[in-house]
Amino acid sequence: MCGIIGYIGDKQAQLVLLNCLGRLEYRGYDSCGIAVSSRSIEVCKDAIRVEALKKVMPQLGGTVGIGHTRWATHGEPSQVNAHPHLDCTGKIAVVHNGIINNFQRLKEQLASEGHNFVSETDTEVIPHLIEKYYDGDLEKAVEAAMGDIEGSYAIIALAAGEPKLVTVRKDAPIIIGIGDRENFVASDVPAVLDSTNRVVYLEDNDIGVITADSIKVRQHGSKVTREKHKISWTVEDAQKAGYEHFMLKEIHEQPKVIRDTLVGWVSGEPAADLAVMRDTGVEAMLILACGTSYHAALIGKYIVQELLRIPVRAEIASEFNYYAQTLAGTMAIVITQSGETADTLRAMKRLKEAGCRLVAITNVVGSTASRTADQTIYTRAGPEISVPATKSFIAQLMVLYWLTMSYSKIEARRLASLTMELRQLPSKVQQVLDNEDKILESARYLSGYENVFFISRGINFPVALEGALKLKEISYIHAEGYAAGELKHGPFALLGSDTPVIAIVAQDNTYEAMLTNIKEVKARGSPLIALVEEGDEAIEKVADSVITVPRVDAIFSPLVNTAALQLLAYYTAKERGCPIDFPRNLAKSVTVE
Ligand code: AGP
């Protein structure tokens, strides 16, 4: 949830840290700060964005330092609660991502031993604990302190006069960026991409000691070697390429994302070796995820049931952890863009313990999910920076099509026509993007309302959920996605001239029922925005605003419909002047439960 960074090398650490922090802000952005060490440690932090901090920051001398951009969990965003946190002597500085569950007990104990606390954070106990065990060897003191801590953490520690960084992780990500005469420690790859594309991923309970020219990793006291990875993403991938927002850039990258997925597909490489399903007589499939990835899981349910003809449950990972499950003979797929979502990782642990075969669909190479699963399928979306997920969702759907069509049980002619249509999907989605101006009109129409319903049926019901989530996340309009058939069982009471309804209508077996629902909505006075296939005159007649998408096979309609709804949310938020890439109270990967 927070972004942490460490630098040690031959450059002045201040500027390096601030630049890296700028590329970590999508992980949390309510406050930030850095600490730079030479003979003593100097700290500058406040409840402001990185760019603002750069403007007010005095010159801090030193070639080793740490930095943090925050998503508050304990203590409101403020100068004193911002990281880095120091111990009483000011000789130990720490940045932390995660939650210390037993911090209150530790704080009381340390206070009784004479330690003074200044913030409301859980994190502040860490530098005080390290100080308690410190005898001139930072590594030993950090290790001892971890013995007292319970919770999830990615930590980087610094001690005045010690030219090294010490880092440790448990249930939160840490990568080490390998440079020439310099090294980096960071929450994830985009932070270091403009300096290096060589990284090492730390495992849970690893402790790393990093100097300018060495990286040492130990686990439970013994030296371990972690594999070096060469990252294919470029720094440009993690920049805006001239677009006003990362979200708009990432929406416009979707035709390429579909093409990149198809490249792997048509070259005959299987998305995943699903033969295991046949061999092990998998009777059922369970797809788990959170947020937007859960909506992909729900669409996956329709695709898998239609193409593989096996029963599928799609479930919210955070809820999955609360009810008894019979998992025997179940193949489980988890979907997670970041690969670090705590609720999803907890569900994965439970599935592993139950002996389920676990496949992860994720966008981040080396993420915790990819190292927990039996098999990992990487989506080919490239780095997704904007908090509202867009291209990763489309990439997840493409992998689900790839997975199921590779093993489908439907008759050959239908499969052949679907396979034919695959090649046109990038240009079909491009057509939606080219229709941007028309969508902008509907967005202007929508931007004046505070409550909105999205409705649809069948495979597009989850698209209604996703459209509502995108609008909620970035425009702050209260939007609800609803199965169209459910409106009459209650929500009808909320309809009226101040509550528009957005209906997603596909030319499939849901069409007639949707037409009826649209008339019911109009009869109750709600303005109607219809998302329909081009040439659908029947609905154009009754709608107040119409967004058209090109005709595709119904099973692929979530791709074109979602792209249109992403743009609708984007332009509505823009009309309302919202901070699109960094919506309030959110973060890109949610690493706490
Ligand atoms: C979507 O726009 C949000 N950023 C959020 O709902 C996200 O989908 C959810 O937190 C799951 O993240 P994951 O795919 O990285 O696991």
Describe this structure in words.
- The chain is an alpha/beta fold and 593 residues long.
- 35% of the residues lie in helices and 23% in strands.
- An 8-stranded antiparallel β-sheet has the order 3-2-4-1-10-9-11-15, with helices on one face. Strands 5-6-7-8-12-13-14 form a 7-stranded antiparallel β-sheet.
- The longest helix has 19 residues, at 557-575.
- The chain is globular, with a radius of gyration of 25 Å.
- The chain binds 2-deoxy-2-amino glucitol-6-phosphate.
- Residues 290-293, 336-338, 341, 344, 387-389, 473, 589-590 line the site of 2-deoxy-2-amino glucitol-6-phosphate.
- 2-deoxy-2-amino glucitol-6-phosphate binds at residues 290-293, 336-338, 341, 344, 387-389, 473, 589-590.
Work out the radius of gyration. Answer: 25 Å
Q: Gap between N and C termini, in Å?
A: 11 Å
Strand order of the largest sheet: 3-2-4-1-10-9-11-15
Count of separate DSSP helical elements: 20
**DSSP, total strands:** 25
